[in-house]
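Subgroup meeting minutes
Present: P.N., E.W., G.H.
Scribe: E.W.

1. P.N. recapped why we're keeping a running log of single-chain structure predictions: easier to compare across weeks, and new members can see raw inputs and outputs side by side.
2. G.H. added today's entry (259 aa).
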Amino acid sequence: MGSLSQIQLFLLDMDGTFYLDNQPLPGALEFLGALHKRRIPFAFVTNNSSRGRAAYFKKLASMGVSLSEQQLLTSADATLSYLEEQHFSKDLLLIGTDSLCEQFEKAGYRTNSPHPQAVVLGFDTSLTYQKLCLLCDAVRAKLPYIATHPDLNCPVTGGFIPDIGGVIALVKACTGREPDIVIGKPNGYIAQAAAQRFQVPLEQICMVGDRLYTDIALGHCGVKTALVFTGETTPEQYAASSERADWVFETIGDMVSEL
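Output recorded in log:
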């Protein structure tokens, strides 16, 4: 298993790992303080595409967390990188919040093009029946179909709200199609992007998160993983799962003593 002290870069999930709603989880700020003290790099990596980058910086700043541009990597960022690398048209149908649409539009994309050349599905907390109809029509038309991430639920104070995974299942039931590619965790694309940003080998990176099928499954691409029980996964679910983390903690704050 090794020691956390060997890790050269920590990738931190947000919802259910570092905070719930607008409150840091127990020990979260102390963990960042310990990383700063030991000069260990870290970055926030989230699948939640309901907000653009600016909204995340603002939210973290309200908790006393100041980040550089390099220290935030979202599934929306990774999706934009994928679209650029694959030379997609700028004409899209983007199913997402105003915040996500703004990020794509700043990158030069038309998010509600009358003639879309691809459809991108994000975590849309403003989802309407009309948007669902547009999405299904585009998928039936065999346009390239990209989802920002696969999460089924998003942890919030007091429980969970439905995430993008439920919409993916609905679209499949209506059209018979699943996304051609799902960009966020556990796709190794997002870990490789972080490794390149920080010039750290995958095997010296640790992904800290609360979901087995995204955060911990990212370990299959070569990174280490640490599971916390403050979000989606319970100890009982972990015990029954075949997915294994390199380390398991009750909270992110419990990791401080292992650094």
